Prior knowledge:
The protein is of the alpha/beta class. It contains 15 helices and 21 strands. The strands form 4 sheets. Strands 2, 3, 6, 7, 16, 17, 18, 19, 20 and 21 form a 10-stranded mixed β-sheet that branches. Helix 1 packs antiparallel against helix 2 and helix 1 packs across helix 4. The longest helix has 76 residues. The protein is elongated. The model has no long low-confidence stretch (mean pLDDT 92).
Amino acid sequence: MEAWERRARHRERLRRKRERQVRQRRIMLIETAILLILAVICVNITTHKREAEQKKIASKKSLVKEALQECYKDFSKSGKKEQADFAGWITDNYPKETAGPLYDRAKKGSITEQDIYEILGETIHVLSDRKAGYLKNEKTMAKHQIYIKDGKREHEAQVLIAGDLCFAEEGFVLDHYDEVQDLSQCISPEILEMTSQTDLFYLNHEYCVSERGEPLNGKLYTFRANPGRMQLLSEMGTGLVSLANNHVYDYGAEAMLDTADHLESAGIPYVGGGRNKEEADRPVYFIINGMKIGFVAASNAEKTKFTPAAKEDEPGILEAYDTEEYEQIIKSASKKCDYLIAYIHWGNEDTNQYSESQAEQGRQFLQSGADIVVGGHPHVLQGIEYMDGKPVIYSMGDFWFNDETKYNGLLRLTVEYGGLKEMAFVPCLQTEYTTQYLKEQQEKREMFDFLENLSPNAVIDDDGVITEDDRNTL
Length: 474
């Protein structure tokens, strides 16, 4: 009897154990089913949210793209080359900005060119170059004559422009330099600090650099520097030079070819002349703080022509005796940049009075698309004239050229989005083979008064800031 009861109790324990196991399995199955259901629900919710978010992003992208298309259409109306699907490229490559500030602007009704610059940090001209692949690397940029420099002031680009520089091995400023062996004893340290610290320092390179060639037969003054003098350009902080003048070819084709080679080796771009017509005609562009600033240069300075125009396979300069070709180059370049500086070597030497032909040509260059015209060749300062709100600087005079005592200086341009923010003149004096910064306020004021008196409608304040005199504007 006891054995039977023990077996019965054992069977009961087994039955209860199986029941518990069955209940546990049922609970696990239920829990698994619930988890699966919840997982499906979560997936569906996530998918729905993702689809909703994607629809929202697509909607934003579509709105931004439409606004960008309208903006780019207006940009292209001014004659600038239109790129296919520029708006789509922006929305694909700048997703964060598309979903954020660009969308905020588009939602308000439109996106402007200035909005694009403020949000993306580059103008449409720069972004177009980026889309076209021109900014991929230094080699590609150099092929398109584009250079990028870090601007020292946010949302601004500062360009410092000097007049004529002459390095001739005998009888000119290099003789003094060879005596003192210190550039700061030739050009004031204040000036050298400005030229080295500005975003871009630009001057007229009125000589050739070579050990080859012979002086042109019959030419009174011929200027040539030894290649070792290139370090002086670098010491000045030179970032760009014009070769459009009447002395770069003084020792013939070989010497001019050498000049181009030495400048290229020194990493200094040049404009207005070169190894062939393509080089002489082509503009140079600098991207500074997301703005694209262009430079073109030409010369019509010689009464007796010694300096040849560049040809297809021969070195020379861009001539502008007939200004039509130069005007076309200006027109084309103006459509590819945000601000265009046109240099011209022109006028009569050693006179502070500019001619009527200079005024006529200056107006033509501005009307062709230049934002400012800067002249050289007279070796002395000439006046400043505003034409329809844009300035013509008739002559910057000499920068560091010879032993004559005369006023000279630096033109400081501060460019912001939309154009010229400020134009100022840094007052200097060339004397005894040196160029000196005028420090004293009275000296500065006398120099500013001198320049102002040469100018029909420009005024210069005590800080050298130049503005248009509205009282003389018709």
